[in-house]
Each structure stands twice: as C-alpha cells, then as structure tokens.
Amino acid sequence: MERPNNRLGWLFTSPYLIYSVVFFVVPLVWSLYLSITDWDLIAPEYHFVGLGNFLDALRSPGVRSAFWVTYKFMLVFIPIVTVMALTVAVLVSGLPRCKSLFLIGFFLPYLSSGVVSSLIVKGLLSYNSPVNTLLRGFGISIDWLGTPMAALFVVGVILAWKFTGYYALILTAGLGSIDKEIYEAAAIDGVTDRQRFWKITLPLLYPSLYTTLILAFGVTFGIFTEVYQLTGGGPSFATNTWQMEIFNQAFKNLQAGYASAVALLASLATFASIYVVRKLLEWWGKRYGWS
User: Fold this and answer.
1) Angle at the Cα of 40 (from 34 to 45), degrees rounded to 5?
2) Are 203 and 124 in contact (CB under 8 A)?
3) Is residue 171 part of a domain?
4) Domains in the chain, number
5) Are 144 and 125 in contact (CB under 8 A)?
6) Mean pLDDT score of the chain, rounded to an integer?
7) Confidence band, pLDDT 50/70/90 cuts, at residue 272
8) Does 150 fall in a domain?
9) Is residue 279 included in any domain, yes or no?
10) Which of 95, 173, 242, 275 is at a distance of 20 to 30 A from 228, taking alpha carbons?
11) CA–CA separation, 157 and 167 (whole Å)
12) Rounded to whole angstroms, how far apart are CA atoms 219 and 73?
C-alpha cells in the first residue's frame, strides 16, 4: 500500500522538483564551475584559473563597496519599511469595515513594475521637476541621484514604499490572531495605549515580525532594478549592490567567470548575514517566551 502512495507523492511533487533542478541546481553547479575559469561569455574556450577569481574579487573596490552598500541599505530600508508596515497594519486593524479593500490598496505597489516606478521617481527628482522647483524656491538645492547619501536614501524609500503593503498584510494577520481578551484584561488594569503596544502587541506580534524582518533583510541583498534605472551603482559606488556588481562584470566587462565568483561570495555574505539576523531575532523572541 505504501508504494503506490509514494509514487503518487513523487508524481505531485515532480513539477517543483524538476523546476528546482533546472533553475537552481544546474545553474548553481554551472556557476561553481565557471567561477574557477576565465570565460568571457563569448569565447568557446576558457581556461582553469583556480581561486584567482575569488582572490581578485576580494581585492576589488567594486566588491568591497557592494558588501558595505548592502548594510547601508539595511540601515535605511529596514527601519522605514518596518515602521510604515506596522503603522498601516495597526490602522487597518482598527477599521470597523472594508479592511480588505484598504489592504489591497496598500498591496498594489508591491505588484507594480520596478522599472516603471523608478522612471517615475527619476522624473519627479529631475532638476526641472515640480519637487525641485519648489525646493529651490526655499533656497534648497539637492542633487538627489548625484549625491551618495541622497541616492542611497531615495532607493531605500522606493523599496520601502513598494514592500510596505506586503509586510503590512502579514502583520495584519498577526494582529488578528491576538486574543482580544488580553486587551480587555489590560484595559481593566489601567494599561495605557502606549504600554499596550510595547508590552502586549509587539511581543505577541513576534512571529509575524520575525517573518517580515527576515524577508526585509533578504530584499537588501537582491536590489537591482531600482539601482540600475536610477543610479547605475553610482555616484562613486554609493549604490553599487551585489546584483549590480555581478551584472557589470558579467555583461559589461564580459567576465563571466569572475562574475560567478562574485555571485558565490554574495551568496555566502547573504547566508551568513541572514543567519546572524535570525539568531538575534530568536534571542529577542526568547525574552518574551517564544522558543
């Protein structure tokens, strides 16, 4: 009786397994092989170079900038998107009706094209745009995409705007799972709204916060579209992300082998960073009784 069931299980899981092998396992193995060669993406022949690509990458200013820029984006993106998502979730949860309608409205930016939103922002922040014209009227002149910190902030805000609705959806579900009797007991004890949020809502929202924060940290390692459209990694490598560095080396400099080595280094940095973040979040959760 077990054999037919096993065959049926393999049959139902085979589409995902085939997809994983074709689009994940095979490219990973191919990337590992290319990382120790000098293939230029065009020539039919390439030579074995060992760990040369990795050593060159570790000495590269572009790779070092991609490493640090990722964490700079975290400092901008994570706080903004977390506060905005929490705010939206709390406000929507307090509505008497039409919650789903408002959540869909906030979720729509997540479905929008990164190319389109980047081009719109680029137009809004151009020199002759209404925004800059108004600011110059007050004596304020900012080169939004030509100044390192300003460019970093602009890209971080665009990403926060895009992902706020998605994370708010997760947090709203978490808020809905909190037992209302806890709030009623707190109200009887005279707990203020601020105390209720920090001492009750936030700790009980830990599972949803854990999920959104892990997802948000993962986003910062895959930033490409907005940077490519707005800054191209500049100015002065200020927004040069891992994905941007890989793209430039593979398709502009035609160094596919070197780009594969950079991609593997990016994967190691991603997994190591997410592991540290996960441990910190788990430590925070244990303080409130989550194991």
Assistant:
1) 75
2) no
3) yes
4) 1
5) yes
6) 89
7) very high
8) yes
9) yes
10) 275
11) 15
12) 10
C-alpha distances out from residue 156 to 117, 121, 160, 164, 223, Å: 13, 12, 6, 12, 10
Q: Alpha carbon of 262 to those of 4, 167, 195, 238, 254: distances in Å?
A: 45, 30, 47, 18, 13
Q: Which domain holds residue 252?
A: 60-286
Q: What is the DSSP string of the chain?
A: -HHHHHHHHHHHHHHHHHHHIIIIIHHHHHHHHHTTB---SS-S---B-TTHHHHHHHH-HHHHHHHHHHHHHHHHHHHHHHHHHHHHHHHHHT-SS-HHHHHHHHHHHHHS-HHHHHHHHHHHTSTTSHHHHHHHHTT----TTTSHHHHHHHHHHHHHHHHHHHHHHHHHHHHHTS-HHHHHHHHHTT--HHHHIIIIIHHHTHHHHHHHHHHHHHHHTS--HHHHHHTTT-STTTT--HHHHHHIIIIIS--HHHHHHHHHHHHHHHHHHHHHHHHHHHHHHHTTT--
Rounded to two decimals, what is the model's pTM? 0.87
Q: Is 196 within the bounds of a domain?
A: yes
Mean pLDDT for 76-96 is 91
Q: What pLDDT was estimated at residue 261?
A: 94
Assess whether pLDDT exceeds 80 at residue 291.
no
- In DSSP terms, which residues pair with 37 in a beta bridge? 48
Comparing 69 with 194, the larger pLDDT belongs to 69
Amino acid at 115: V
CB 152 within 8 A of CB 201: no
Residues 184 and 240 sit within 8 Å (Cβ to Cβ): no
